[in-house]
Amino acid sequence: MADLAKLKADLAGIAIEDNPAIVKQKSRDFFWYSPVLKRQLDHVVGDLVVTPKDEAEVIRVLAAAHAHGVAVTPRGAGTGNYGQAMPLAGGIVLNLAEMNKVTAIAPGRVVAEPGVIMAKLDAETRAHSGQELRLHPSTANTASVGGFVAGGSGGVGSIRWGGLRDLGNVIRLRIVTMEASPRTLELSRFDLHKVSHAYGTNGIITEVEMPLAPAYDWVDVLVGFDDWMDAVRYADALGNEDGILTKEIATVAAPAPFDYFLRHQKFLKREQSVVIVMVAPHSLDAFLAFTGREKGEIVFRADTAQDLKGLPPAFELAWNHTTLRALRVDPSITYLQVMYPFPDHQKKVARMTELLGDEVPGHLEFVRFDGKVIPMGLPMVRFSTEERLDEIIRIHEEEGCPIFNPHRYTLEEGGMKQTDDVQLAFKREADPDGLLNPGKMIAWEDPNFDYRAKKTFLFPGLQAAG
Ligand code: FAD
Fold first, then answer.
1. Residue 256 CB less than 6 A away from ligand 1
2. pLDDT tens digits, 440-451
3. What secondary structure letter does DSSP report for 33?
4. Which domains does the chain have, with CATH numbers?
5. d(CA 34, CA 89)
6. N or C: lower Cβ tally within 10 Å for the chain?
7. By alpha-carbon position, which residue is closest to atom 1 of ligand 1?
8. Angle at Cα 118 formed by Cα 113 and Cα 120, nearest 5°?
9. pLDDT (tens digit, 9 = 90+) per residue, 340-352?
10. Which of 318, 291, 345, 349 is nearest to 158 (CA)?
């Protein structure tokens, strides 16, 4: 048992919070999106929240935590929804929210501290030189850029730029290692894969350098279709129109838009599926011509932020905000993450709709993936039991639609169901005692874990509650 009093004394001068209510609040992310993670993680809580104001303080915290053998789980804004930021082994929640400065802006690039909220970052780069991040999650108004790199994957902008793991979408990261004398390292090129989407298990990001794109006053449009597959075909074709600049294309199957997008309900018809689009102003004419030809009905359009008249921006209807809005109306809703491989993606979407119908209402996000436009599925699921959820996953996989399971908190089970050797090797180097965000990398905890056995990994400390 670590001596927390001594640890606190070592951290004198750094902001520490041990009020149980606040520690509990800062120990939670959006894990509860998943009924499975809710059952497993609801009781998880850290011991202390430590809030460094700069990299020097991060180094002091990691050195002290290392000396006392205390776990450290980094936290940006806590909006991750796979339980990535849940401190499974207790210890320190390292709250990076106060490291929130944009430090340099240049043509095509920005350097920032990890805790800056992405909407704030975009506001600064827009004001400075009419630039913005290439991509951001639909939580841009609340989530941090460091948390996005460490825990996210893509989002608004991915129709043009692909995902975070694509070369060029992160330029450079500076990290601090978890050792007796923590080191700072600069990572770029392929080395970025060591810590990108590694949930902070092998280094604390203290600076990010991200590429920027020209900022536009994106026009929000909702396009209605009486038939779901017509909406899917339209969205796919729009994503392939090389001359029309879009930042977001998503489809949501009827009746979900009408039933769940309550603030937009007056514009929607219950029987219509909806395509959510953000289009650049200079592409609007071409977009309107294209949509007219494809017989889409424009049911909502906001050319400027003022036109929204208090409504949320279109991107807050998309990505996991679709699920969030559904959950608010029907708490039994959860979701899945599905890949519909190119070139049969439309057929596969139609097949899954035929097999699962309204139990799994369709929601697709069109993105560039390996240079092709494909729909990534974030279908909603009317949850009944964990067994049925597993069966729905199995049905997808049998039909050739891989699932990235959002009901698992480990890197491996949520993603490729295999060890990421690069991330594991880097953890051996950068966190030899395994103190950073314990429990999230199975390969570290249990090198013999058999993924084929289809058993869920449970971090030892969780077994009682799970
Ligand atoms: P946190 O949740 O605080 O952390 C995420 C992970 O990164 C954790 O493992 C944490 O330990 C680690 N971490 C945080 N900061 C650091 C650091 N400085 N160094 C090392 N590790 C660190 N995600 C998407 O990718 N695309 C989406 O479109 C999207 N939409 C969402 C919509 C909703 C409604 C919700 C609830 C979630 C959504 N997410 C999405 C998930 C999440 O919001 C984003 O990935 C977000 O960028 C996470 O940022 P955060 O600051 O909240 O990170």
1. no
2. 999 999 988 888
3. G
4. 4-95 (3.30.43.10), 102-214 (3.30.465.10), 219-398 (3.40.462.10), 418-462 (no CATH)
5. 20
6. N
7. 78
8. 90
9. 999 999 999 999 9
10. 318
